[in-house]
Amino acid sequence: MDLAPLFLPKSLAVIGLSTSNEYHPANVIFNKNLLRYPVRSYAVNPKGGTLNGEQLFSSVADIPEAVDLAVIAVRADFVPSVLQECIDAGVKSAIIISGGFAEAGKNDLQQELTEIAGRHNFPFVGPNCLGLYSPTMVDTFFLPTERMVQPPSGDVAVVSQSGGILVDLLVKFAGEGVGVSSAISIGNKALIREIQLLEFLTSDPRTKVIAFYIEGFAQNEGRDFVRFARTCGKPVIVLKSGKTKEGSRAVSSHTASLAGDYQVFSSVLAQHGIIEASNENELVSYCEALSCYPNTRTEGNVGIISGSGGHGALAVDACISKGLNVPPFSQPVQKSLQAALSESIRAIASVANPVDLTGSALEIDFVAAVEQFCRIEEIDCILLLMLPYLPGLSSDLGARLSQVYRRFKKPLIAYVPHVEKYQMLIEGFELNRVPVASSIESAVCMTRVLRRCRPC
Amino acid sequence: MLSKLMKEIFLASRKTGWILEPDAKLLFREAGLPVPRFGWAKQASQLQEIAAEIGFPLAAKVVSPSVIHKSDVQGVAVGINSIEELSAFYEQVSSLPDFAGIHIEEMAEGLELIVGAKTDYQFGPIVLLGIGGTGVEIYQDVAIRMAPLTGKDIDSMVRELKGTKLLTGYRGNKAINMEALSEVLLLFSELLMEIGPYIESIDLNPLLCSNDGCLIADARIMLDASLLTS
Q1: Angle, nearest 10°, between helix axes A440-450 and A280-292?
Q2: Which residues of A touch B137 (CB under 8 A)?
Q3: Contacting residues of B for A217, CB less than 8 Å apart
Q4: Which of A41, A114, A319, A358 could anchor a disulfide with A324, C-beta 3.0 to 4.6 Å?
């Protein structure tokens, strides 16, 4: 099954536009793609005619070119025949937005779709989904663009069983400056499921990190998923819901009681080197850190630099509680650190790890400390807690420090409060591929994910 | 491949829904797993002979398709030192529902671990290792992995337990025989890959582990619903 036409369509047919309701999902989808994306968009309504000056094709078969992707947004009962028409017309893939299938108890109707597509080896996503958002390529979400918060183009792919969670994640990605390659909501996942998408995204050159929101797998499906993920070569991150659901069947053995659905899920993921995020914020932090450092695996020995003792102390606590080490520096290391600092702070800075450069630190002190940290063998990751309000620092520091990373390749993670005023400092890091967290906790999360578990 | 004996045991247990302890021990012995010397006295007249064969002190447990949790009904006795004590225990449990004799076995000592298995809906056969005994569900100190296990899986399971030091030696207590434990887990995982479709879950609890080796002191095999005869 070839998913390329679905992810990288050059031509798009939107089926089911309304001539009376401008908020109809098909109308929203057609308009945004027609007006804002390079994909060639065609509108389909059996009545034909025109809408806002655009031609309405009465059937997908009437469209004058081979269509890569059809978006189907008609009433559930009509979907099987529309799907068949698409296949007969040589359409290469489809996204079925319409609801009213398995989620509404209509398993037979959904089964019909799977059978039609199966007979022709025809890929479709859905039903009951938002479909695909691929920055600069195509967007099948039935949400007006002005209502959406869209992250920039980047290298994180997100697959979600829930459309709502996906849109919410995109808001958070945008807020943290994390770019996405594609975001896809798979709804009832009648045909295309997590594993096919994992396979496609593994070979997708635009994607470096693959994140999933998963409610559950079908029988034995999890087994295939983890086995593939283990060897796919890209970081795979999973956020799971339904952790607390108790099995309905009475359990008569200790093992059945102790190895509940979620305990097994979580353990098996870790066994196969898949990263589990415990909430949305963790997922976003993990994606940001791994998109900058997809091939880095540390041993979790952290060096901390800040301009305030309190920041350093909080970061150490957070590191220790996440199982990271913050090794104290030896006397010779402390000496050379001290020697690298400006004279004005040499006597007041604390250089043990965490390093506190104090509020009197100058920009060159931060640069010198990071350079020194890159040479210290006891640590394999640098956590930098920036206090952009200190008088000696400028907004250029992000870009300057990113260059230090590029010279030494020791992973650097920064914390900068995410407010408009410090945006230039943040972008100085992010545009140069150094992740920036909006809280100390999330900076520590990013640090931890670099020491991600190796598959057993 | 399942041996003839194993198949017979599964078939014979379809009505009960689980495998009686003497049959479970037989099945594990057949798979090469370490079980204590044991006998099944279906009648009082067999007690003398079985006791003589195994030797005192002994452990004895009621055998009944209606009794899954034996200690809940005072169906377990340990440290039996004479034929009189054994006969008295037989007498005491013979009134339990569907009484089918008593399981008699040699006494063993060691750290109480649990080794378990379950057929998970999403991931298929999984293996569990934990701190065992009657408090297993209180401590909930377990590590879970998808089967089949590798040597690396086993190492990481042992490390993952909060009570890992109990296994590796703590305050004068000798470490348990790690090679023996690995061997048990590998064999168990292999067996599980064969019988996975037929089982709902398995508890080896306790698996008694010492410096000398491991011994399955108690075993319970719950069959998959698809295997049960209505």
Answers
A1: 60
A2: 254, 257-258
A3: 122-123
A4: A319
Q: Report how far apart the first and last C-alpha atoms of chain A are (Å, whole number).
A: 32
- Judge: A258–B156 Cβ closer than 8 Å, yes or no: no
Nearest to B47 by CA among B106, B101, B107: B101
Q: Could you tell me what percent of chain A has a pLDDT over 70? A: 97
Please name the helix (run of DSSP H) or strand (run of DSSP E) that holds residue A270, with its range, or none.
helix A261-271
**Sequence letter at residue B164:** T
Please name each of the domains of chain B with its CATH number: 37-107 (3.30.1490.20), 111-227 (3.30.470.20)
What does DSSP assign to residue A78? G
In chain A, % of residues over pLDDT 90: 92
Query: Residues of A near B (CB-CB distance < 8 A)?
Result: 216-223, 226, 251-259, 261, 263-265, 267-268, 271-272, 456
Q: Write out the DSSP string of A55-77.
A: EEESSGGGSSS--SEEEE-S-GG
Residue A223 has its nearest CB partner, among B123, B137, B143, at B123
CA distances, B131 to each of A173, A254, A428, B187 (Å) = 42, 12, 51, 19
The answer for residues whose C-beta is within 8 angstroms of residue A425's C-beta and 6 or more apart is A386, A388, A395, A397, A398, A416
Cβ contact A258–B128 (<8 Å)? yes
Both tokens of residue B119? Answer: 């057929």
Q: Position of tokens 């000398």? A: B212
Angle between helices A163-176 and A280-292 in degrees, nearest 10: 50
A1-125 folds as Rossmann fold (3.40.50)
Torsion of CA B163, B164, B167, B170, to 10 degrees: -80
Question: The domain at A149-295 falls in which architecture?
Answer: 3-Layer(aba) Sandwich (3.40)
**pLDDT tens profile A137-188:** 999 999 998 999 999 999 999 999 999 999 999 999 999 999 999 999 999 9
Q: Which CATH class is domain A302-450?
A: alpha beta
- Centre a 10 Å sphere on the Cβ of residue B52 and count the other Cβ atoms it contains: 10
| Span A240-273, pLDDT tens digits | 988 766 544 455 678 888 888 899 999 999 999 9
3-state secondary structure of B14: coil
